Each structure stands twice: as structure tokens, then as C-alpha cells.
Predict the 3D structure of the following.
Amino acid sequence: MINRAFLITGRVQGVFFRDSAKKEALKLGLHGSATNLPDGTVKVCLRGKIEKIDLLERWLHIGPELAKVESVIEVDIDQQLELNDFKVS
């Protein structure tokens, strides 16, 4: 199991991005979180098998129907971080 985190920019707040990301992550058996940040981006932290995280990363580039994703950037995350379940904040 590995941890990875992504910052997603574009029209990603107010379009059910976090809830949709949670549903997709849970379908793939991933744990983590999706958080709205003050600058209008969404941060998604994930824990799971690399191939499943890669699948969700591809989904992040598209997002839910109302989203308009401009970029998805991988950011550093503590590999010791324990991510259980999936939290939206």
C-alpha cells in the first residue's frame, strides 16, 4: 500500500467533485480524503494499491459532469500517514 496526493484545479468546488471522488475511490477499494482548499482547489489524498490509485488519478483529470478540470498535480504526502475510510471536508 502506498500514499499519494493530488491538487486539482479548475471548476472543482461546488460541483460535487469531492463526493464523486469519494464514490470512485471506494469503488476501487481506496482510502483517503478529499478537501476543498481556500484557493479554490481540491486536495485528494489516497492510500491503496498503486494500480488502483493510477485509475483514480485518471478519473481526477475528468471529474464529475459539472466539473471543468484544468490540472491535476501530484504533491508530496507523508508515506507514514494512516488513511482509513474516506473523508470529505
